[in-house]
Amino acid sequence: MVASKNDTTVPGVDFEAAAGRIRDLNEQVIEQAKKSGNVSLDAYEKALTSVLDFEKKAAGASQLDFVKALTDAHVNFVSQTSEAYLKAAREVLK
Highest taxon of the source (predicted)? Predict the structure, then answer.
C-alpha cells in the first residue's frame, strides 16, 4: 500500500499527544513572558519616578522661576504620558 501525500500517520508517533505538549509549552512561555514584561514595566516606572523626583529637586534648588515652571511642566507631561503608556502596556499583558 502506497501512502498518499496527505497521510500524516507515522507508526509509533502520537501527534495529538505531541501537539498537546507543544500547546502546554507555548502557554508556559506566554505566561513567563507576561511576568517578565510586568517586571520590566515595574522597573521602568520606578526608574522614571526616581528621575522625575530628582528633576523636581534640582529645579527646586534654582532661583529662577521660569526653570521651576518649565521643569514642572516637563515632569507633568512625562508623568501623564508614561502613565498612559504603562496602563496600555499592562492591559496588553493581562
Answer: Bacteria
